[in-house]
C-alpha cells in the first residue's frame, strides 16, 4: 500500500461507522445488481413459454442449494399463476420481481453514497483543519522561502484532489469488484465453458489500461506545482497592484501569468488525455469481449444446442454489467494516481518540521521582574552572520533604542526576542530564564510588537485592535485608540470602531493604519514593548501625535525601540549604535553626541533606516 494512502487511514478511522455501512450497502448493491440481470431470465422464459413446469412446492435443502431452490420456487409460482389466472399474471409477477430488485439496488446505492459522502466531507474538513493548524504554527522562516501561492494551492486544490480521488478506493475495492465477482459467479452457474473463455480477455485488458496510465502520478505532481506558482503570481499581482501599474509592468506580469497558465494547460491536456482514454478503451475492450461472446455463445445456442437461448440472453446482460464496474475501476485507478501526487504534497507540508516550538514541560511565565539579557549571540539567515557575538542588557523599565544603517541587524533583534527565529549560538534570557525554555505563547504574551509594516486584517477596527485581548469592551478599545491618537479619525468613520477597514486596511492612510497597530499593542498591555521602526510610515503631524502616545505607552514598561527617526530615540535611556551585526557605540543621546562618532554622523545625516 502506498505510504500516503496509509497516512489517510487515521483520518478515515474517525468515520469508521460510515466506512462499515458504506461497505455493507455496497455489498447489497453489488448483489442486487447481479440479481437484477439474473431476474431477466425468468421474464424471458415466460415470454418465450420456456418456463419449467413445477407443480409441487419445492423443499429447502440447505444453503448449498439456495440458487436451485429459488429458481424452483419462482417456477412453482409462475406455473401456479399461469394455470389458475393466465400467463398475463405470471408475466406481471416476474416483471414486479425485476422492479423490486432494481428498486432495492438503487436504495442501497443511495445509502452507500450517503455514507461515503459523510466520510469524504468529514475527512476533507479534518485535513483542512490539521493543515491550517500546521500552516499557522510553522515558523516565520518557512514563509521567507516558500511561495504563499504554493501553500494556498495545497490547501485548496490538492486537498480537494485527495478527497475526490482517494474515496474512489472504497468503490474500487468493494462495490465494483464485488459486482464483477457476483456477475462472474452467476455466469459460471449459467455456463462454465463460456465464462472461462471470457477470462482470456481480462488480463489483456488490464495490461493495456495500465500501460496508458504510466507516468500519470509524476505529471499530476508537476501540474499541482505549476498551479501553486500561478496562484502565487495572482497573489503577488493583487498585493502589489499599485507598483505594477506605476511601473507600467502590466505586460511583464501578464506574460509571466500566461506562460504559467500555458504550461498548466499542456500538463492538464496530457493528464486529461490519458484519463479520458481509460474509459473508452475499457469500454471498447469490453464490447470486443461481448462481440466474441455473441459469436461463441450464439454457436452454443444454434449449433451446439448446449445453452438455452433465454439463458444466453441473460448471460450477455450479466457480461455487460461487468463493463460498467470494469470501466469505473480503470477510471478510478487513474484518479487515485492523481490523488497520490496531491496527497504527497499535502502530507509533505503537514509533516514539515517546526523547529520553533515550546519544549516539553516549558516554563509558563506571565510576569516580568528584572530584565532581558542577550548573551554572545550569533545569528545567520543563510551563510553569513547577521549578528556576531552580540550582547546586550535591557533592565526592566528602561527604554533601549537600536540604531544603525540598513542591514546592521536591528530588526533581527526583534525577530529573535519574539522567537520568530532562534539564535544559532548564545542565548537570550528573560529574568534569567532562557526564552527557549519558556512556553512560546507565554513568551509572546509578555510582548507587544509594532512593526514598520502595519499589518491589519479585513475586519472591523475593534476586531483588529482586540486581537491580543479578545474580550475587550468597546470602552477599552476606545481608550487604547485615544492613547494611540487614533480615536480622532475613528470617531468620524461611518460605523466608528465597527467600521470594516478593507483588505490589509486599504481604506485607511498609512499613518492611520500605523496608529491602529499601536492601539492594538496598547490594548494588549504587555510589560515588554518592541517597536520596529514604528513611526517610519508616518507623516510629520502623525509622527508627532504618535510619539506622544508612544512615550505615554512606554512609561513603566521595558521598551526596545528600533529607530528610524531621531525624535523617536532622544529620550531613550540608552541608545545602542549597530554596524554589521556589532555594537559600535552605546550611551544616551547627549553622551553619544559628545563622542562625535558614528551616532553623531547618523544624526547629522538623519539616516535612521
UniProtKB/TrEMBL annotation:
Ranges annotated as spanning the membrane: 20-41, 89-108, 180-209, 284-302
PROSITE patterns for the chain: ABC_TM1F, ABC_TRANSPORTER_1, ABC_TRANSPORTER_2
Bilayer disposition of the protein: Multi-pass membrane protein
InterPro entries linked: AAA+_ATPase, ABC1_TM_dom, ABC1_TM_sf, ABC_transporter-like_ATP-bd, ABC_transporter-like_CS, P-loop_NTPase, Type_1_exporter
Compartments it resides in: Cell membrane
Organism listed in the record: Flavobacterium paronense
Major location category of this protein: membrane
Record-linked PANTHER family: ATP-BINDING CASSETTE SUB-FAMILY B MEMBER 10, MITOCHONDRIAL, ATP-DEPENDENT PERMEASE MDL1, MITOCHONDRIAL
Domain of life assignment: Bacteria
Name of the protein in its database record: ABC transporter ATP-binding protein
Amino acid at each position: 500500500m502506498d505510504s500516503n494512502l496509509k497516512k489517510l487511514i487515521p483520518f478515515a478511522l474517525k468515520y469508521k461507522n460510515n466506512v462499515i455501512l458504506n461497505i455493507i450497502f455496497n455489498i447489497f448493491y453489488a448483489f442486487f445488481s447481479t440479481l437484477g440481470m439474473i431476474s431477466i431470465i425468468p421474464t424471458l422464459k415466460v415470454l418465450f413459454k420456456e418456463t419449467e413446469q413445477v407443480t409441487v412446492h419445492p423443499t429447502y435443502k440447505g444453503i448449498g442449494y439456495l440458487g436451485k431452490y429459488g429458481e424452483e420456487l419462482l417456477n412453482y409460482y409462475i406455473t401456479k399463476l399461469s394455470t389458475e389466472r393466465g400467463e398475463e399474471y405470471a408475466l406481471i409477477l416476474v416483471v414486479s420481481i425485476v422492479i423490486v430488485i432494481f428498486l432495492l439496488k438503487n436504495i442501497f446505492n443511495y445509502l452507500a453514497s450517503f455514507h461515503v459522502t459523510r466520510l469524504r466531507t468529514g475527512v476533507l474538513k479534518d485535513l483542512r483543519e490539521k493543515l491550517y493548524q500546521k500552516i499557522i504554527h510553522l515558523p516565520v522562516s518557512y514563509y521567507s522561502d516558500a511561495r504563499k501561492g504554493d501553500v494556498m494551492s495545497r490547501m485548496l486544490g490538492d486537498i480537494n484532489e485527495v478527497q475526490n480521488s482517494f474515496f474512489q478506493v472504497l468503490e474500487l475495492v468493494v462495490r465494483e469488484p464485488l459486482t464483477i465477482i457476483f456477475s462472474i459467479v452467476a455466469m459460471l452457474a449459467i455456463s462454465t465453458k463460456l465464462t472461462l473463455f471470457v477470462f482470456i480477455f481480462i488480463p489483456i485488458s488490464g495490461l493495456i489500461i495500465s500501460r496508458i496510465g504510466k507516468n500519470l502520478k509524476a505529471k499530476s505532481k508537476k501540474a499541482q506545482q505549476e498551479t501553486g506558482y500561478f496562484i502565487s503570481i495572482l497573489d503577488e499581482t493583487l498585493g502589489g497592484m499599485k507598483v505594477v501599474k506605476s511601473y507600467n509592468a502590466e505586460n511583464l506580469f501578464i506574460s509571466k501569468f500566461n506562460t504559467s497558465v500555458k504550461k498548466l494547460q499542456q500538463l492538464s491536456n496530457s493528464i486529461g488525455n490519458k484519463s479520458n482514454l481509460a474509459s473508452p478503451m475499457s469500454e471498447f475492450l469490453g464490447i470486443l469481449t461481448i462481440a466474441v461472446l455473441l459469436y461463441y455463445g450464439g454457436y452454443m445456442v444454434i449449433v451446439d444446442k448446449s445453452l438455452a437461448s433465454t439463458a444466453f440472453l441473460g448471460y450477455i446482460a450479466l457480461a455487460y454489467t461487468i463493463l460498467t464496474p470494469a470501466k469505473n475501476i480503470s477510471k478510478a485507478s487513474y484518479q487515485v494516481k492523481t490523488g497520490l501526487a496531491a496527497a504527497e504534497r499535502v502530507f509533505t507540508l503537514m509533516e514539515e518540521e517546526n523547529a520553533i516550538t515550546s519544549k516539553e514541560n516549558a516554563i509558563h511565565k506571565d510576569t516580568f521582574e528584572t530584565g532581558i539579557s542577550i548573551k554572545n549571540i550569533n545569528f545567520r539567515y543563510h551563510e553569513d552572520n547577521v549578528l556576531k557575538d552580540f550582547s546586550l542588557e535591557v533592565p526592566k523599565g528602561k527604554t533601549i533604542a537600536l540604531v544603525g544603517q540598513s542591514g546592521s541587524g536591528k530588526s533581527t533583534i526583534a525577530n529573535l526576542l519574539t522567537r520568530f527565529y532562534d539564535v544559532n549560538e548564545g542565548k537570550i534570557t528573560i529574568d534569567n530564564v532562557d526564552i527557549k525554555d519558556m512556553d512560546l505563547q507565554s513568551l509572546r504574551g509578555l510582548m507587544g510588537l509594532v512593526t514598520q509594516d502595519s499589518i491589519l486584517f479585513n475586519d472591523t477596527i475593534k476586531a483588529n485592535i482586540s486581537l491580543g485581548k479578545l474580550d475587550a469592551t468597546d470602552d477599552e478599545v476606545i481608550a487604547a485608540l485615544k492613547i494611540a491618537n487614533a480615536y480622532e479619525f475613528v470617531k468620524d468613520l461611518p460605523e466608528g470602531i465597527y467600521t470594516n477597514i478593507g483588505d490589509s486596511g486599504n481604506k485607511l492612510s498609512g499613518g492611520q493604519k500605523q496608529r491602529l497597530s499601536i492601539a492594538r499593542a496598547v490594548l494588549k498591555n504587555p510589560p515588554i514593548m518592541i517597536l520596529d521602526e514604528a513611526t517610519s510610515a508616518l507623516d510629520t503631524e502623525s509622527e508627532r501625535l504618535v510619539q506622544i502616545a508612544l512615550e505615554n505607552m512606554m512609561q513603566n514598561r521595558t521598551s526596545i525601540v528600533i529607530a528610524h527617526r531621531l525624535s523617536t530615540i532622544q529620550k531613550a535611556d540608552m541608545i545602542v549604535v549597530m554596524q554589521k551585526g556589532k555594537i559600535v557605540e552605546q550611551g544616551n543621546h547627549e553622551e553619544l553626541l559628545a563622542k562625535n562618532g558614528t551616532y553623531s554622523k547618523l544624526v547629522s545625516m538623519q539616516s535612521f533606516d
